[in-house]
């Protein structure tokens, strides 16, 4: 039997995805059912317990495959990046048509109707997929209307088929977002979550974790002495960490030092990180 990454393949000793039947051993194989994330941000955990560590997150509108629901937890796999884990069963709903739009600003509000003076009914992160069913205008402001009857500021959305021109520019809009281990939303990000979200907005799929990104995101290259050949968009990897170069000298990253998404000169980061974790292990150009 092959050795598969359990982060990306749904299999346990008692239950597994039927698509893995020839690759893993399990007591029972099942065909997963399609579902969609129904809450602004769903926490995915490695075990079905509220005190289990955060593995990653999924945003409203993301499509998933459900393999099991039991005792308030659903064992699922994300269709976007294949990540496997447990979310609250209440975070799921049936799929209701393909998304038409995506939130393209760091954060925005849901309103119970097309009026920004109404009490907000929720908050949405950049990257949230929405099904827009109509438009409305109120006091000169345009609103996108959702199937729920709720409304979002229309200029905070872009068509689902559109993409940002520069993923680094997207990352720069997220400066000062709080650091959150396992976070992938504009409410809280970890280092690889920042890379994944920014690239997603530019139409460039990226794996979830930094080791996955280091293994296959773009082309590896050797930096010249003094790092003189680095350019905007290059990725710099340390053991368990990744940063995005904004130019030849500076980088942006979600980090536990500032507990924010922050900009920092590369050489200062190398000196600061080095005494604990060593120097950069890899450079890649997406």
CATH secondary-structure class of the largest domain: Alpha Beta
Total helical elements: 4
User: Radius of gyration, Cα only, in angstroms?
Assistant: 20 Å
Number of domains: 3
Low-pLDDT windows of residues:
none
Overall 3D form:
globular
Provide the CATH superfamily of the largest domain: endopeptidase domain like (from Nostoc punctiforme)
Strand fraction equals 35-45%
Strand order of the largest sheet: 20-25-21-22-23-24
For the record, give the distance between the C-alpha atoms at the N and C termini, rounded to a whole number.
33 Å
- Portion of residues in helices? 10-25%
Kindly state the number of beta strands: 25
Class from helix and strand fractions: mainly beta
Q: Taking all residues together, what is the mean pLDDT? A: 97
List the secondary-structure elements in sequence, H or E. EEEEEEEEEEEEEEEEEHEEHHEEEEEHE
Mind telling me which CATH architecture of the largest domain this is?
A: Alpha-Beta Complex
Could you tell me the CATH topology label of the largest domain. endopeptidase fold (from Nostoc punctiforme)
For the largest beta-sheet, the strand count, sense and barrel status come to: 6 strands, antiparallel
């Amino acid at each position: 039997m092959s050795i598969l990454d359990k982060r990306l393949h749904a299999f346990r000793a008692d239950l597994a995805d039927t698509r893995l039947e020839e690759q893993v051993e399990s007591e029972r194989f099942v065909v997963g059912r399609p579902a969609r994330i129904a809450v602004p941000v769903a926490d995915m955990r490695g075990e079905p317990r509220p005190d289990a560590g955060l593995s990653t997150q999924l945003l409203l509108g993301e499509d998933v495959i459900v393999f099991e629901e039991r005792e308030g937890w659903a064992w699922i796999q994300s269709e976007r990046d294949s990540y496997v884990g447990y979310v609250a069963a209440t975070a799921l709903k049936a799929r209701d048509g393909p998304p038409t739009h995506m939130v393209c600003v760091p954060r925005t509000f849901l309103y119970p109707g097309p009026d920004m003076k109404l009490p907000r009914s929720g908050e949405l992160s950049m990257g949230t997929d929405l099904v827009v069913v109509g438009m409305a205008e109120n006091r000169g402001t345009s609103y996108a209307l959702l199937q729920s009857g709720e409304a979002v500021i229309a200029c905070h959305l872009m068509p689902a088929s559109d993409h940002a021109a520069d993923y680094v520019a997207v990352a720069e809009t997220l400066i000062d977002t709080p650091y959150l281990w396992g976070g992938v939303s504009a409410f809280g990000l970890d280092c690889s979550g920042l890379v994944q979200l920014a690239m997603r907005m530019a139409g460039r799929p990226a794996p979830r974790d930094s080791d996955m990104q280091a293994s296959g995101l773009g082309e590896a290259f050797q930096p010249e002495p003094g790092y003189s050949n680095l350019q905007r968009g290059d990725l710099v990897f340390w053991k368990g960490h990744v940063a995005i170069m904004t130019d030849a000298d500076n980088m942006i990253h979600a980090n536990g030092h500032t507990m924010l998404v922050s900009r920092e000169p590369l050489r200062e980061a190398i000196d600061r990180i080095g005494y604990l974790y060593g120097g950069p292990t890899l450079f890649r150009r997406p």
